[in-house]
Structures are given as structure tokens and as C-alpha cells.
């Protein structure tokens, strides 16, 4: 295999570990825990994994040898930078405990466990993937582990391979599934532990215990580099407004972080739009006013950041999409389906540019929901801002020129080579997971805390997954799930944006982060996201 100079150099990088995981390790246990909400319901659903204590690892005077055991690992859901380092950390952690431990990777995500597709991950294989992006070492998938026959199929292959523990690397749904699996295996007394690891570039898997999900740091740095490049181009050419849609359907963490890193003229946060019950025309008018204000200074260029899920946070659009989902579930003919929605929603539908309106009626996902990533929100806003500016020009309120370009940054950031922060964080999560297994834990998530400090000061811990759960309605039924973290409007990161955005809107205050740096001063190479630093300040 041909490798770039960076790949060769990165292969030699040794990720940093918390001091507690270097050498001999001991475990300490805290008080019993309870779920964040719906305690009685969660306890009833998870009698074997509810109420367990938070655990932490500390340095010990004497190392204990783990009996040789086999462990399985699964990558679940969308890719995120650093997944390979989680697996490398698991491998190294197991081998440090007993050189005869074996690690098996289930191929293509959770379906690999169900369909018995796997490979042994040897040192030669692991060494090819250290500090690299992507999930291609074993592949990933979105199969949900929720049925008894799936669980039983997992027991069958684990027994065949002598696997005593499974580690599931995924987002909130995947870790919920990990907890369901752990509960079932404890109930069946089959001797298989289950540990989860927090992954998602969207940044919405965080709470009082999880400081950040892995991959968020790298993805935001990749997007911010390209946003900075576009800003430099806009400031050079001085003739384009760039409307940039960023990953993040359920939460606007990526848009907010990239906004803090680059200081755009407009950074929309979906959670604010919903809280203020802003209409589509209010959003458009706000952007148009800023375009006009900059034009009055002779600046006919700018940058607008848009979260991917914005369309579903605008109240009138949310109602329209919900009504369309219901209508199209009953009637596949779009013209007939449109006659089934309310007059108000039909009015909103007819106000949209034709191409965007058509996108709202495209084929639904397997759950019957509109596929938000297919809706070109950036083009919708460009067209509507253009129309609004034409009206303002006719009224004598705008005298500039408006040329706009649309972009969508998503897949570009999901498999990037992990930043030093993510390389270290992910390796530590994996190494920590090996110690949770060694201490007989199941139904826990691997945690690394105190992450704004140098890696040696990070805290290695484990939290019962049930502690982070509540009951939510999913597809018409109440289900136990890990609560998603949305942008908090009273949180420090959003307040930092809100305090500066009026200034950034008018001035050209762009910041150019440049590409991720892997070698050099720590302040350039090892810094976490601005979001994390503001939250922990």
C-alpha cells in the first residue's frame, strides 16, 4: 500500500494517556446512581444495570495480571475521526493486561455480530491503522441491536470465539443499544460484558459526565479550515456571499464551534430559532439586513453558516414537514398528498422556491421522516435572500450587488486523520475500556474527563449508561434513550457567539485557523475545541 509522508510520520505517533492508566491501575467506586429522568420506568426496564456506581481509575502500587480473555469490538453508526485509535487503545490495553488476550472485530457494524462476520485483529493489522481516520479497519453499519433473536445470535458467536466482552463504539442510540444488550446478557447470565464508547462528530452526545464525543474536535477543525479558506477568498475577490451548510441534524454544535473558530458574518443556531419561534421570513430578513449593512460600507461579500437541521427547527417548517410525512405515508401521489395538509402549511409550501418544495416531498427514510441532508437549505436561503434584497432595492433600502454560492460540508470531516486531541482522547477511551472489562464491568460507558488539561491530568472513569437515560417517544412508542445534548442558549459557548455576532456581522473579522497541525508547539497542536474550553472555564 502506498502511503503519504504524513501517514508514515503519523504511524509513529504514540498517543498520550492519563497518568492513571500508565502502569498498575486500581479502581475506585462512587455512590449509587439514578437516571437523569423517569427513574421508575428506567429502573424497571434495566433491573440488572440500574443504580450502579460511577467508577474511576487511579494509579496502583502493584499490577494485577488479567486472565487471558477474548474481546469483540463493533463500530456502529456514522464515521468519526479517531475510531481506529479507540480500537488501538483497546488492543494495547488488553495486551498490557495479558499478552494472550485476543481482539475480534465484527465486520460492517452490529450486523457483523448478528451474521457472524468477523476477523481477528492482530498487531500487524492494528499497526496499519494507528492514528488514521475512517472506520475501514472493520467497517461500520446502522443495524439496531434491539431484538431477542439478534441478542441470542450474538451469544452464539461469542461462545464460539470465547468472547467474554463486547465494546460498542457509537453515538447515543448505539450506546443505548449497548445498555439493552448488557441488560439482556446479565439477565441470561451468559457471562458476556458490554461496554460503550461515546462517538459522534455532531457533538450531541455529552452531558454532566461526558465532556465531548470523539471526532467532534477533528471534524470542526477540518470544516473551520475550509471555512477560513473561503473567507480569505471572499475577502480577496470581494464579490461573493458564501452560504455554508454544516453537519448537525439534531443540534447546532458544529455550526457554533466553527462560528467561534472563524467569526463569520452570520452563524445561525437552530436551537435559538426554535426558542424564539422565528419564521423563515424573519431569518431571511435578518440575513438580508446584514447583507445590506455590509453593502453600505462597500462590502458585497460575506459568509453565512447554517446548521444542517435548521429546516426542522423553524416552527412553520416543522409543522409542514410533519404534515407532509403523515400525508405521504398515506398517499404517494404528491399532488393528492398536498390536498391533505392544512391551508397554513400549504401556504408555506407554496412560498418556497420550486426546487426546494420538491425536495420536501422526496422519498422518506426508513422511519418515514424527511431526509434533511437532501434539502439544500443553503440554496433555499440564497434564493429567498435574493428575492428580499430585490424588494429592498426597489424600496431604496439596498444599493449593493448580491452574488451567492452554496456549499455543504459534511462527509469531508467524518474520516479525517484525527487531531492530536482526538488521537489521544480516543486511544485513552479504548485503553480505559479494556480496564473496565478487566474489572468485570458491564452496562458502562468508557469516560475520559478533565480534557481541557494536559493528557497526563485526564481522569479515566466509567459511567453506568442507565444514568444518562430518559424516556422519549420514538416512532409512536415510549423508549429508553440517552438524552441528546442540544446547544444551551444560556451556556458559555453560545453566549460568546451572541456577544460578538453584531460586530462580526458588519466588520470583516474573519479568523483563518488553517489546516490541522500534528507536529509543533502544544498550543498549536493539542488544543481542544473552543466549545470545550468555554464550557470548562
Descriptive account of the structure:
With 537 residues, the chain is an alpha/beta fold. 43% of the residues lie in helices and 16% in strands. The chain contains 21 helices and 15 strands. Strands 1-2-13-12-7-6-3-4-5 form a nine-stranded mixed β-sheet, sandwiched between helices. The protein has a four-stranded parallel β-sheet with strand order 9-10-8-11, with helices on both faces. Strand 3, helix 3 (83-97) and strand 4 form a beta-alpha-beta unit. 49% of the residues are buried.
Task: Determine the mean pLDDT.
Answer: 95
What is the beta-strand fraction?
Answer: 15-25%
Biggest sheet, strands in spatial order? 1-2-13-12-7-6-3-4-5
The oligomerization state is single chain
Note poorly predicted spans: none
Count of alpha and pi helical runs: 21
Instruction: Identify the overall geometry.
Output: globular
Give a short account of the largest sheet: 9 strands, mixed
Q: How many E-type strands?
A: 15
Structural class: alpha/beta
- Give the C-alpha Rg: 25 Å
- Fraction of residues in H or I helices: 40-55%
Distance between the termini: 44 Å
In summary, what is this structure?
The protein has 537 residues and is an alpha/beta fold.
List the topology elements:
Layout lengths: L4 H7 L13 E8 L6 H7 L7 E7 L10 E6 L7 H15 L4 E5 L3 H6 L2 E3 L2 H7 L18 H14 L1 E8 L1 H16 L5 E6 L17 H22 L3 E6 L6 H10 L3 E2 L2 H6 L4 H17 L5 E6 L2 H4 L1 H16 L3 H5 L4 H9 L2 H6 L17 H18 L9 E6 L10 H19 L5 E6 L9 E6 L4 E6 L2 E6 L9 H15 L15 H4 L4 H6 L2
Parallel strand pairs: 3-4, 3-6, 6-7, 7-12, 8-10, 8-11, 9-10
Antiparallel strand pairs: 1-2, 2-13, 4-5, 12-13, 14-15
Amino acid at each position: 500500500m502506498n502511503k503519504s509522508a504524513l501517514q508514515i510520520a503519523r504511524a509513529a505517533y504514540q498517543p498520550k494517556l492519563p497518568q492513571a492508566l500508565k502502569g498498575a491501575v486500581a479502581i475506585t467506586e462512587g455512590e449509587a446512581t439514578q437516571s437523569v429522568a423517569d427513574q421508575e420506568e428506567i429502573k424497571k426496564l434495566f433491573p440488572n444495570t440500574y443504580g450502579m456506581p460511577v467508577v474511576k481509575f487511579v494509579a496502583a502500587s502493584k499490577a494485577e495480571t488479567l486472565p487471558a480473555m477474548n474481546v469483540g469490538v463493533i463500530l456502529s453508526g456514522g464515521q468519526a475521526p479517531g475510531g481506529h485509535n479507540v480500537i488501538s487503545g483497546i488492543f494495547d490495553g488488553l495486551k498490557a493486561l495479558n499478552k494472550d488476550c485476543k481482539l475480534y472485530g465484527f465486520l460492517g457494524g452490529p450486523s457483523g455480530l448478528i451474521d457472524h462476520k468477523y476477523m481477528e485483529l492482530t498487531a500487524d493489522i492494528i499497526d496499519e491503522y494507528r492514528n488514521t481516520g475512517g472506520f475501514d479497519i472493520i467497517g461500520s453499519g446502522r443495524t439496531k441491536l434491539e431484538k431477542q433473536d439478534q441478542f441470542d445470535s450474538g451469544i452464539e458467536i461469542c461462545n464460539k470465539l470465547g468472547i467474554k466482552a463486547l465494546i460498542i463504539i457509537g453515538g447515543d442510540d448505539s450506546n443505548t443499544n449497548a445498555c439493552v444488550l448488557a441488560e439482556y446478557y446479565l439477565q441470561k447470565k451468559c457471562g458476556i460484558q458490554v461496554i460503550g464508547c461515546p462517538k459522534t462528530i455532531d457533538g450531541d452526545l455529552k452531558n454532566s459526565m461526558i465532556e465531548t464525543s470523539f471526532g467532534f474536535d477533528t471534524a470542526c477543525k477540518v470544516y473551520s479550515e475550509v471555512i477560513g479558506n473561503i473567507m480569505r477568498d471572499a475577502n480577496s475577490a470581494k464579490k461573493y456571499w458564501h452560504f455554508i451548510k454544516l453537519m448537525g441534524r439534531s443540534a447546532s454544535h458544529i455550526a457554533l464551534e466553527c462560528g467561534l473558530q472563524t467569526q463569520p458574518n452570520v452563524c445561525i443556531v437552530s436551537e435559538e430559532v426554535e426558542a424564539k419561534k422565528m419564521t423563515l421570513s424573519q431569518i431571511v430578513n435578518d440575513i438580508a439586513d446584514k447583507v445590506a449593512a455590509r453593502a453600505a460600507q462597500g462590502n458585497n461579500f460575506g459568509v453565512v453558516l447554517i446548521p444542517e437541521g435548521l429546516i426542522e427547527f423553524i416552527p412553520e417548517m416543522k409543522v409542514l414537514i410533519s404534515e407532509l410525512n403523515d400525508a405521504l405515508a398515506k398517499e404517494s401521489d404528491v399532488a393528492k398528498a398536498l390536498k391533505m395538509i392544512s391551508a397554513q402549511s400549504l401556504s408555506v409550501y407554496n412560498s418556497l422556491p420550486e426546487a426546494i418544495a420538491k425536495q420536501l416531498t422526496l422519498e422518506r427514510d426508513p422511519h418515514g421522516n424527511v431526509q434533511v441532508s437532501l434539502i439544500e437549505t443553503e440554496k433555499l436561503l440564497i434564493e429567498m435572500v435574493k428575492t428580499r434584497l430585490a424588494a429592498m432595492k426597489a424600496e431604496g433600502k439596498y444599493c449593493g450587488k448580491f452574488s451567492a454560492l452554496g456549499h455543504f460540508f459534511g462527509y469531508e470531516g467524518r474520516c479525517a486523520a484525527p487531531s492530536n486531541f482526538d488521537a489521544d482522547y480516543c486511544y485513552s477511551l479504548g485503553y480505559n475500556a479494556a480496564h473496565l472489562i478487566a474489572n468485570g464491568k458491564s452496562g458502562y460507558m468508557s469516560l475520559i474527563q478533565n480534557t481541557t488539561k494536559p493528557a497526563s491530568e485526564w481522569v479515566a472513569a466509567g459511567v453506568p449508561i442507565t444514568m444518562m437515560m430518559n424516556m422519549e417517544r420514538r416512532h409512536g412508542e415510549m423508549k429508553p434513550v440517552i438524552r441528546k445534548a442540544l446547544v444551551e442558549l444560556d451556556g458559555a459557548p453560545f453566549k460568546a457567539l451572541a456577544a460578538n455576532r453584531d460586530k462580526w456581522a458588519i466588520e470583516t473579522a474573519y479568523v483563518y485557523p488553517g489546516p490541522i497541525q500534528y507536529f509543533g508547539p502544544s498550543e498549536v497542536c493539542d488544543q481542544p475545541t473552543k466549545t470545550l474550553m468555554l464550557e470548562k472555564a
